[in-house]
Amino acid sequence: MRVTLPLLILAASSAHAAPFMAVNNGGVKAWDSGAVNDYIIHVSCNATEVHQLRKGLADAITLAAHARDHVLRWGNASEIYRRYFGNAASGEVVGNLEKIVSADKGSVLFRCDNPDGNCDIEGWAGHWRGANATGETVICPLSFTTRRYLEQICAFGFTVSGSKPNELFGSDLIHRLYHTPAIGEGHVEHFADSYEDVLELGKHNSTFAVRDSNTLQYFALDAYAYDIAVPGIGCAGNIIKSSPEQQRTTTSSQTSSLRPSTSTAPSSTVTQPPSSTFEVPEGCHTHEGGELHCA
Ligand SMILES: *[C@@H]1O[C@H](CO)[C@@H](O)[C@H](O)[C@H]1NC(C)=O
Ligand SMILES: *[C@@H]1O[C@H](CO)[C@@H](O)[C@H](O)[C@H]1NC(C)=O
Ligand SMILES: *[C@@H]1O[C@H](CO)[C@@H](O)[C@H](O)[C@H]1NC(C)=O
Ligand SMILES: *[C@@H]1O[C@H](CO)[C@@H](O)[C@H](O)[C@H]1NC(C)=O
Questions:
Q1: Which residue's alpha carbon is at the smallest distance from atom 12 of ligand 2?
Q2: Is the per-residue pLDDT at 281 higher than 60?
Q3: CA-CA distance, 214 to 228, in Å (whole number)?
Q4: Residue 7: Cβ-neighbour burial (10 angstroms; 0-12, 13-18, 19+)
Q5: Which one in 154, 203, 206, 282 has a CA-CA gap of 20 to 30 Å to 48?
Q6: Ligand 3: distance of its center to the CA of 53 in Å?
Q7: 40 pairs with which residues across the strands?
Q8: With a 6 A CB cut-off, is 130 part of the ligand 2 pocket?
Q9: Are 211 and 187 in contact (CB under 8 A)?
């Protein structure tokens, strides 16, 4: 008794102690009770799909976490940062990347069945369920045979500017996660589609670049490629290699000539859904590669 009492007072009066943790919490739940720290995968995914999806989600987190750390270390002193976000303050970029890593994941679900029938459409590798279930993403079988893993960035001819971010499972899933309210909050959205559009947005409209889904993906890929995958070299590709001055004075007709000649066109297995057999639901649009996204 004589020992316990002073200890209790000490714990409760220390400015840095978490009082409910340090002493018996008297039945009060810890502030983060019920937190969900891992993305949830539905039972409809079989054993191998779960393994691949877990790896893809781990890649998404690795990419986002490194991009966040790159910004925290260098801010706008980073050429890669300025390439995508121009003169924007870095706080929102850090926050949007951190959402992928650390947001509560309790209302985000990945499933491998085909509740909306969209996986039946040739070339569809997955889709956000939109108004049918805003927190849910369907990953179709095609994803498991076509997406590549983060170890393969800068390999097989992959370049940040010349390849599609969805060739890698990690960046593909960053895109899908931003569609969910828990991660994107309806705030991270699509404002720029092509790589050139992303560069334009960063240069002239950085308020929107910091919350553009594609910009955040390209930035994360570029930073990871340069810092981690092929240190000090990366695999930016031809468009980025053109000098900033060249980019500033490039007209839209010249822009296309800056595309790498080996630009990876959508592969023959990934095609736009034929409009005759599929109606795009209201509020939705399709991306290159035939994937459905709903506002
Ligand atoms: C870069 O960030 C610093 C603050 O870290 C700020 O003072 C400066 O204006 C920024 N430069 C540009 C070009 O945005
Ligand atoms: C939502 O469900 C309806 C009815 O099954 C379907 O027609 C529609 O395509 C679904 N929406 C999405 C985004 O899949
Ligand atoms: C899981 O489903 C995939 C299709 O996405 C299939 O290729 C694979 O063989 C299945 N794995 C098992 C263990 O059944
Ligand atoms: C920035 O982009 C947004 C979204 O496309 C657009 O609504 C807005 O008008 C743009 N602002 C400027 C100054 O171009």
A1: 129
A2: no
A3: 21
A4: exposed
A5: 154
A6: 12
A7: 109
A8: yes
A9: yes
